[in-house]
Amino acid sequence: MEYPQKDSLKILIIASEVAPFAKVGGLADVVASLPPAFKDLGCDVAVYLPAYRQILDYLDNNYEVILRDLPVQIGSKLLNTDILKAELAPGIPLFLARQNFLFDRPEIYQGKYGEYTDNLERYIFFSRSLPLFCSAAHIAPDIILANDWHTGLVMPLLNQGAMPRSAGVFTIHNMGYLGLVPPNRIDSIGLPEEYYRTDGLEFYGQMSLLKAGIIYSQAVVTVSPTYAEEIQTPTFGAGLDGLMRWVKESLYGVLNGVDYQDWNPATDPHLTANYSPGNLYGKRLCKKDILIKMGISKEFHDKPLIGMVTRLVEQKGCHLVAEAADALFDLGLSLVVLGSGDKDYERLFSNLKKKYPKRFGLKLGYDSILARQIIAGSDMFLIPSLYEPCGLTQMYSLKYGTIPIVRATGGLSDTIIDPHEDLPATGFKFHQASVPELMKAVTRALQTFKKKTDWPIMQETGMKCDFSWEYSAKKYLTIFEKAISIRRGMSK
Question: Are both 476 and 446 inside the same structural domain?
Fold first, then answer.
């Protein structure tokens, strides 16, 4: 199948995060690194985001105001927004919807007391602003690529007739977040009554903005081939598995990619020493550096070090690590963890730090530089997720010569080769989400670590893996071609 004419394909990506301006999870990395891959293939691409306080602070007035007081309806209210234009990367515009009442806040999704109570209205407003902005700015994309529930409403707006020449493609980064709107807040959505039926947004008495994106898009993409299969099952479908089976002909699993210009241990400026597959001496220096930074006692500096950079939530298998902690430390290793999330898990890991102060390093919060240093300095990287749509940290750790130990789910299964599957291997997998299975995988990793010839081969194999965006971006273009054909057929 031929790709669309790249010199004429116009793509507008709408999302709630983009690195490095506003980042909470892997979505931000994808939205930052996918546009340059499209541009390299000859496409015109731009990104649309809310003008969060941290983005404006980051830009430090390096933007222009291209529209003022654009009125956006949400429920019975009209809220004005300004549209700003900055640059995400050379030749890639970043458009920002500035509405200070909704987005001028210390954090993106939550404050010190938890999630902002008006998150639904914030992202309904943001979604509704997109077609108005495009119309006022005379922008006519061929493709609107929306991401997760925050932008799911864009798809029924296109279905209503907004931007009739723009095809809608909806990407699911995590099926577990449904964007549920309770009955007393449905008016803020602003769609006609027929959209609120079971064959529309309705989900067990509420409305789902994620479902809106799935139902009314021309194509649905999720972020790994295995996850595309998993979300068609009751275990991973979050109550929408029947819908996913219904749309399976327009459902695609496209593996996320890595920007190796950014993630490369040979050039990473944040490491205490650089290194490459042919010379891993710098990795030993990175290990020493992170052991000191994370407070690991000197008596454990020559022991295996496992790293984790994760959200401290159930999905990430944090309870498995906590339950296995005594057995893990009995193996003679040390563990360093960077992350934040549920307060119960933060307390649980803080208590582990008190119990094992010499061999457990913990930093609560997010620190992008420390994350890189943990990935570079660890011998192994643990990702025991209950489900993982794609995952990026295992790809980063492969590039940095840090062997992943992962649960075989979603993109983790797609990107890691276990010695039991094939050789040369790149990591270790376990299938059942249980402490015994996790321990078996860690034990196998430690046994290989002791083999001074096998371990460097595994490291070098992983470091040479190529998960760059070019291949995935080309798959997106094929999907876009199909979506455009469907959309243009609907408009005739």
Answer: no
